[in-house]
Amino acid sequence: MTDRYLALVNTPVGQLIAKNVGIPNPPVLERWRDGAPLVDGTVLVGAAEGGRLEKYVGDLLATHDVAVDGAAEDGKRYKGIVFDASGIRTPDQLVRLQEFFTPVLRSLARCGRVVVLGTPVENAESDGEAIAQRALEGITRSLGKEVGRGATVQLVYVAPGAEDAAASTLEFLLSPKSAYVSGQVIRIGTLAKNAPEPVDVRRPLEGKVALVTGASRGLGEAMARTLHRDGATIVGLDVAPLASDLKKLIDELGGTSITLDITAADAPKRIARHLDEAHGGVDIVVHNAGITRDKRLRNMKSENWQAVIDVNVGAPQRITAELLDQQLIRPNGRVIGVSSIAGIAGNNGQTNYAASKAGVIGFVQELAARVADTGITVNAIAPGFIETAMVKTIPMAIREAGRRMNSMSQGGRPIDVAETVAWYANPGSSSVSGNVVRVCGQSLLGA
């Protein structure tokens, strides 16, 4: 759905009115386009004394021919600013971030990227280090609400020994592909450090097979198209009433399709059979299919409660279990769940939906630990207000609140969710597991 306010406020007259009246002034976000560089500008890289990640950042940017400065130059604009805070081991050393960022934040370009790197608290060697590293979350989440102009701020915790496993995550966060992701905390462990890297950085999923449920429209369609763009063969799944839409999409992308109700008793086995017979297995499983049946709890019907739980989290659990039991998810495979900010912050009239989406997070956290030794990663995305056809059914006042109540002052697009899925799916993300990343423009709701 078109955001007419966004279009109006970004005209010369709209900019003048917004400036003088003080109304929200959402920027036009820069999103990835074919052939674009990883970073369209210079990246400033700094580090606290004793940091272990600065070198890896420099080496990565060099492979992409990105210009890097080790010290700020007066009057120069920076498209990215990266600070390695992994060397900060006491609370008093946190001032190093203030000393680094205060002089350079005004030099951050429109739609710029800020990334802070740290050490997971569980790897801290003292209580002082644990305090300091956990404090980075407060700093980055707050800074994300300050930078404005379409810029984003993220914190990436990199476990010791996983330094060279951070490449795909940094590529995603520094590029326009992360346009609607901000204020997030990402953890990179050492689950599958030696997993194969993609051969072609522009088609990292070449030779992979990706199952996307709810693929015919909206977020699912964007996911299917984006994974196909990156080289994957798509297996699209949807219900019978959407079979014609699904067929049209799959005919265009050249994959295969499955038409069924994922809550049916035989659905897991039917899906497994198709993946085995048509593709010999699957590399990426995206549990996107979902429904809502909104009512306040005092008015909730049992059948509507159960339907939402079963579609949104029960079926994904059963399907994944079947694929794992039959060993159809290949080594270095991906399982990706779709949660929601409703599952984190709650929502009036959505106790059933919020329960299901919080349940997705529990599913991801438990399964990620259980399959860690197989090289399979399990992660979730939690979309916020995304401009899909469903937006038209939302009352105007609530719709406008959803759009403006985030650091970007606008709704996201399906491509923003799809790009995050593609980052999880990337073979280089083999040490990213157990994460829940919100695609919400840093919504003011929830954590």
CATH architectural type of the largest domain: 3-Layer(aba) Sandwich
> Given this structure, which CATH class of the largest domain is correct?
Alpha Beta
Overall geometric form: globular
Radius of gyration: 22 Å
Number of helices: 14
Largest sheet: 7 strands, parallel
Helical proportion, percent range? 25-40%
Unreliable spans: none
Number of strands: 13
Q: Number of folding domains? A: 2
Mean pLDDT: 94
Fourth-tier CATH superfamily name of the largest domain: NAD(P)-binding Rossmann-like Domain
Strand % is 15-25%
Annotated CATH topology of the largest domain: Rossmann fold
What is the element string, with H for helices and E for strands? HHEHEEHEHEHEEHEHEHEHEHHEHHE
Helix/strand structural class: alpha/beta
Ends apart, CA distance between termini: 27 Å
Strands in their spatial order, largest beta sheet: 9-8-7-10-11-12-13
Model description:
This protein is an alpha/beta fold and 447 residues long. The protein folds into 2 domains: 40-188, Rossmann fold (3-Layer(aba) Sandwich); 209-439, Rossmann fold (3-Layer(aba) Sandwich). The chain is 37% helix and 18% strand. It has 14 helices and 13 strands. It has a 7-stranded parallel β-sheet with strand order 9-8-7-10-11-12-13, sandwiched between helices. A 6-stranded parallel β-sheet has the order 2-1-3-4-5-6, with helices on both faces. Helix 7 (218-229) links the parallel strand 7 and strand 8. Helix 7 (218-229) crosses helix 14 (414-425) and helix 10 runs parallel beside helix 12. The longest helix is centred in the C-terminal third of the chain and has 24 residues, at 302-325. The model has no long low-confidence stretch (mean pLDDT 94).
